[in-house]
Amino acid sequence: MWGMTNSSDTSTPADVPAASTGVSDRNQLNPLFARSGEATDFPLNRLPGSESLPETAYQIVHDEAMLDGNSRLNLATFVGTWMDPHADRLYSESADKNMIDKDEYPQTAAIETRCWKMIASLWNAPDAERAIGTSTIGSSEACMLGGLALKRRWQQARRAAGKPTDKPNLVLSSAVQVCWEKFCNYWDVEPRFVPITDEHRCLDGSDLDKYVDENTIGVVAIMGVTYTGVYEPVAKIAAALDRIQESTGLDIPIHVDGASGGMIAPFLQPDLSWDFRVPRVASISTSAHKYGLVYPGLGWVVWRTVDDLPSDLVFDVTYLGGHMPSFALNFSRPGAQVLLQYYLFLRLGFDGYYRVQKASQDVAVYLAGEIAKMPAFDLWNDGTDIPVFAWQLTKGHTDKWNLYHLSERLRLKGWLIPAYPMPDDLTDIVVQRIVVRNGLSRSLAESLVQDIADAVAYLDALEAPMPTEGLTSGFTH
What we know:
Number of strands: 15
């Protein structure tokens, strides 16, 4: 094996020109890892001319991946970055399962059904056996399926009444996640954004009558706004829609985007009415790979009853000799994450999920409290909804630096904490946000507080303003 020569020669044929990129287009192999007879570099943007040893290919990929940030210190992402060794083992054993092939993998299909029924019960569906749901590739697909069902139900009702169906609209907060903008773009639905303001920091039902009409397919309520982590008051939004129905006859359903809060509120705020206990809620989606604690990418969407999902959106497909229902934007997709979700449901149960989520919330509240004590900052929220909070620079504190500079300064310590402007009508306000996930311990949080304090002290001591050229938003929603 180690004496392999010709078969492991990775040199590129002479008649294949190298692309000019302005940087090296070769991947140099550390001499310590070079094997006899192997070339010491690989082309970056072209398929190598021949094969290499698996150890060599592994080392190249492994070393490049080390250049990514430390996921444990990434406080920008909502996506889970850790599972226990038993989950890792289960993942490797089931990575080859195709979720769509329910005839070949009937047990995985049965486990998928068990999971969404558990979730339907967790979200207080009137009858979990009469609900309907599915797994998805993350909550973006789940949101789009929820939106499609809203649009189709509206179309069917309009056609039955002999009315046109060419101008559907969807009402949502200006702080909505970008997947909803994509939904409206891809499926020709007019988005009607209710702007957030200092007085109304999320969609709360205020002035909703100015945005809805007979062409409104639904209202999206967010349990855990991406910008700040706050819950939009679903019951209050529903009450506003109740009043609108009383005066206009318009019966407008709600889809709850519970990407984060859908797996937090049932455990930490069990008395909060946001789910199927609110009669106007037709469907709910969540990200299993966020506070569902599963590796990416997995989402779930559940409808209150089978009647809330139009049957003409569900396809009966023949695949590898079997018939199966299919309602998804993706066809072939991994089944492993579904098994991981089931593993966690069995492993943690309600009490275990409560303890994990409570630990994250405790750390978030601690961090928010410590940052609130610093004169440089004003909190936007305190982490008592989902374990996420944001803050802005205190007005008049300094003219020498901003939160983008603080973000860069913290990156020197390995912390990834984004700074970004708020959405339309509040774009002059820049905030920073911390997402606390399972794995950010109290001791790490204490280190972070010290690093923030040190960074602020350094920036406050500057004798001249920091340059602003090249500063960029930490991420795009």
